[in-house]
Amino acid sequence: MSPRTTFADRVRSSRPSRGTRIMTAMTMAVAVAGGSLAGASTAQGAENPYERGPAPTESSIEASRGSFATSQTSVSSFSVRGFGGGTIYYPTSTSQGTFGAVAIAPGFTASQSSMSWYGPRLASQGFVISTIDTNSRYDQPASRGDQLLAALDYLVEDSSVRSRIDSSRLGVMGHSMGGGGSLEAASDRPNLQAAIPLTAWNTDKTWSEVRVPTMIIGAENDSVASVNSHSIPFYNSLSASLDKAYLELDNASHFAPNSSNTTIAKYSISWLKRFIDNDTRYEQFLCPAPDDRTISEYRDTCPHSG
User: Where are the domains of the chain?
Assistant: First the structure.
């Protein structure tokens, strides 16, 4: 596959001092404490203009919905080029500026409905999410990768929510062959900010050229794309210098990503926030390796540099 030059490719790309006053010890302590909080808030906002939503907690990333109210809109296959249409889920708020966007592809023979639970769950955390249908249910990973990129291009160029999206902050996800497609997309477009292949399947096992921060999620009991033949070789082939992680779902099957899953959600949210939003508040859930009974194995390249 040859890389394509698109709109998204082209777009890519002092803390305030506190004076001291002469006052009583108690008044000085209050003033300094208040100034410290204000200074920290100002500095954090200046350092990361992409931060969206309140400070995360374990319960907030495990919740079925985040802090943003969401809406959705259908996209007909007849109104787009390069992919089979789908559904866009997006935060209704406009007060915090634009959001990062993620396209999500289904697996072999499946439709967008198999990935629909990701839409409101991820959008309510502060992302625009597009779950797509593929041109054919039998499309292979390379084609699904191209279609994920076409869906991202549609989001930022032509969709009804394009004004809500920061076109420099985009990512891809996918299940099975759609997961293999997310690796293809990351290979073809290195300026993506994040990729999350879910129990991915691909005949290509080597991805050393990928420059996109990638979290690979496998399933311990996957008999379709076994972790030993797919997810683990994919992870091992990624550059050691890349921000990457491998999460293996304990006692789970190939189809675990097709149903609402708190483990997938919480670590996907953390990965997307960390790398699409550059929000280091979520680093705590990724580094050090999580101690989570729903995970049978976790590998990483902590601390993250991105």
Answer: 60-300
Q: What does the alpha-carbon distance between residue 45 and residue 42 come to, in Å, rounded to a whole number?
A: 5
CA distances from 15 to 45, 46, 118, 127, 280 (A): 11, 9, 38, 29, 18
Are 79 and 85 in contact, with CB atoms under 8 Å apart?
Answer: yes
Interacting residues of 298 by C-beta distance below 8 A, sequence separation 6+: 245, 246, 247, 248, 289, 290, 292
User: Could you give the CA distance from residue 115 to residue 104 in angstroms, rounded to a whole number?
Assistant: 7
- pTM of the full structure: 0.85
Dihedral sign for Cα 236, 240, 244, 249, please: positive
Q: Is CATH 3.10.20.600 the classification given to domain 60-300?
A: no
Candidates 146, 166, 254, 270; catalytic one: 254
Tens digits of per-residue pLDDT, 98-144? 999 999 999 999 999 999 999 999 999 999 999 999 999 999 999 99
Whole-number Å distance between alpha carbons of 74 and 88: 6
Residues 272-281 pLDDT 10s = 999 999 999 9
Torsion angle of alpha carbons 185, 143, 100, 227, nearest 10°? -60
Decide if 254 is catalytic.
yes
- Exactly one of 139, 146, 166, 222 is catalytic; which is it? 222
Residues 176, 187, 231, 270: which is the catalytic one?
176
Residue 222 known to be catalytic: yes
